[in-house]
Design brief:
With 551 residues, the chain is α/β, with parallel strands linked by helices. It has 22 helices and 13 strands. It is globular and about 75 Å long. It binds 6-O-phosphono-beta-D-fructofuranose.
Length: 551
């Protein structure tokens, strides 16, 4: 992007009545170091903590003073966060560009709750599907469901992409500790054939079930992989009837599912009011449920629901998702922060940052407001990260001493799932040490006092004043995972509401898809067709065709 997005001037978020107070507060805070803020308020580390549903958020090491949160909360109220939250939870069509309700919270509503869309209770539908998923999962897990040749299923391959992959793969890895270790569970997403070939090369088709997960059932990558999977199965099993035993579908599109050849009795449905990146707790979670079992899956849903209720009802000063969303916005707006690093000190959360990338960036990577006018402020930051402590030996250097301000979320658990010697204490010591170093740094005088030669002093000085959120839970279990995901979902919603954007559409992914569809026949034609792209694209197509055909 070459310059500021949209017209200059004050509009949207910046025109809210509470805005000037926030600008004032930023001016007061900006010159103050976290060292000074902590020294001036000995209770800060205990006061700037919010706890709910077993999650403890320490936000004291943020560049804020005692006035910042109340003013951010005023901004949230002013932007109508309460009203928009109610609109979302009650099924209003708040995804205006697609004309859809946004009801992922209904996916985890307890049985018996009533949430109506166009006069129809969707919670009853949700539980009907969950029950079918549970009985199917039990049949797979117990060996009762037999493949075409009578063997039980030992391998489950989820084929999907985006929200139909990232959630299930993240949840499977996160909850591996609770999974049936006799099952091999894998995920194929990329249209690059290597993904499919590597994930299936050592599997027996007689024992392999494919879960074709696609909301639309038209996604190029998924349907290409699904067709390859069907050929792979039929090549070994030799009979079309085998599809019924080795393929199930998760989709909103029964017609396409039937067209592919999957019996719609073996289809698990969901609805247009579930966005792809908000769907890991819908039928899209079927692979997760097969891996961990229906009871554990239900525990995960209860964790989601607990944070839904917390977000909906807790005052924003003590509301974890709201606080996290507001702080993200604070840094994006007032400190020019373009990224947020999510750093789970938990190996099982290795795919959590990748999952959050779609959740946060597909949701809030928008440059126009709901009414189509351009924003004149930064919206969704780039999310990225890696499990600690690995990241410490890689990119943390830049966070500590580079020129970019990168707010970090450090996530850890009081109890590890694999007790082994003193590993867990060492792991957690690193969380605290990093947050401490980032906040307080090391002054030049402190470096000198260690006897460091003068020419090295600037290199060994840590400026500090780098913000972190430190998030703790007792241990990673299904309910806690649900809480963590819901926490970020509602944080994203908080930001999107204040920015005034539609966090639930994703038009930005469409153009590339359309262009790819046009290019495929140009690559596959026997004779080079007349190419009418720009000169670079034309030359790339020619170079590719020549390179491929030489092989
Ligand atoms: O291309 C983006 C996207 O539409 C995501 O929003 C979605 O999660 C993904 O593609 C997969 O879509 P589907 O589940 O329809 O295959």
């Amino acid at each position: 992007m070459d310059g500021p997005v949209g017209p200059a001037g004050e509009s949207g978020m910046r025109s809210l009545a509470s805005w000037p107070d926030l600008v004032d507060n930023r001016a007061g805070v900006s010159g103050r170091h976290l060292r000074e803020l902590f020294a001036g308020d000995p209770g800060r580390g205990e006061q700037m903590v919010a706890e709910a549903e077993g999650l403890r958020l320490d936000y004291s090491k943020n560049r804020i003073d005692s006035e910042t949160v109340p003013r951010l909360v005023a901004l949230a109220e002013d932007a109508g966060l309460r009203e928009r939250t109610e609109a979302m939870f009650s099924g209003e069509r708040i995804n205006v560009t697609e004309g859809r309700a946004v009801l992922h919270t209904a996916l985890r509503a307890p049985r018996g709750t009533v949430i109506e869309v166009a006069g129809h209770d969707v919670v009853a539908d949700v539980h009907e599907v969950l029950d079918r998923m549970a009985s199917f999962s039990d049949r797979i897990r117990s060996g009762d469901w037999k493949g075409h040749t009578g063997k039980p299923i030992r391998n489950v391959i989820n084929i999907g992409i985006g929200g139909s992959d990232l959630g299930p793969v993240m949840a499977y890895r996160a909850l591996r500790h609770y999974s049936d270790r006799d099952l091999t569970v894998r995920f194929v997403s990329n249209v690059d054939a290597t993904d499919f070939v590597e994930k299936t090369h050592d599997l027996d088709p007689e024992e392999t079930l494919f879960v074709i997960a696609s909301k639309t059932f038209t996604t190029l990558e998924t349907m290409t992989n699904a067709r390859s999977a069907r050929e792979w199965s039929l090549a070994a099993l030799g009979d079309h009837a085998a599809v019924a035993k080795h393929f199930v579908a998760v989709s909103t599109n029964a017609e396409e599912v039937a067209g592919f050849g999957i019996d719609t009795d073996n289809m698990f449905g969901f609805w247009d009011w579930v966005g792809g990146r908000y769907s890991m707790d819908s039928a899209i979670g079927l692979t997760t449920m097969i891996a961990i079992g229906p009871e554990r899956f239900a525990e995960m849903l209860s964790g989601f629901h607990a944070i839904d209720e917390h977000f909906r009802t807790a005052p924003y000063e003590r509301n974890l998702p709201a606080l996290m969303g507001l702080l993200t916005l604070w840094y994006a707006e007032f400190f020019g922060a373009e990224t947020v690093a999510v750093l789970p000190y938990e190996q099982y959360l290795e795919r959590f940052p990748a999952y959050l990338q779609q959740l946060t960036m597909e949701s809030n990577g928008k440059h126009v407001r709901l009414d189509g006018t351009a924003v004149d402020y930064a919206t969704g930051p780039i999310f990225w990260g890696e499990p600690g402590t690995n990241g410490q030996h890689s990119f943390y250097q830049l966070i500590h001493q580079g020129t970019h301000l990168i707010p970090c979320d450090l996530i850890f658990f009081a109890r590890g799932l694999n007790p082994l010697g003193d590993h867990h204490d060492l792991l957690v010591a690193n969380v605290f040490a990093q947050a401490e170093a980032l906040a307080f740094g090391k002054t030049a005088d402190e470096v000198r006092a260690e006897g460091v030669e003068e020419h090295l002093v600037p290199h060994k000085t840590f400026e500090g004043n780098r913000p972190t959120n430190v998030l703790m839970a007792e241990r990673l279990d299904p309910a806690t995972l649900g809480k963590l995901v819901a926490l970020y979902e509602h944080s994203v919603f908080t930001q999107g509401t204040i920015w005034g954007i539609d966090s639930f559409d994703q038009w930005g992914v469409e153009l590339g898809k359309t262009l790819a569809k046009r290019i495929v026949p140009e690559l596959q034609a026997r004779e080079e067709p007349e190419l009418e792209h720009d000169s670079s694209t034309n030359a790339l197509i020619r170079a590719y065709r020549a390179g491929r055909d030489r092989g």
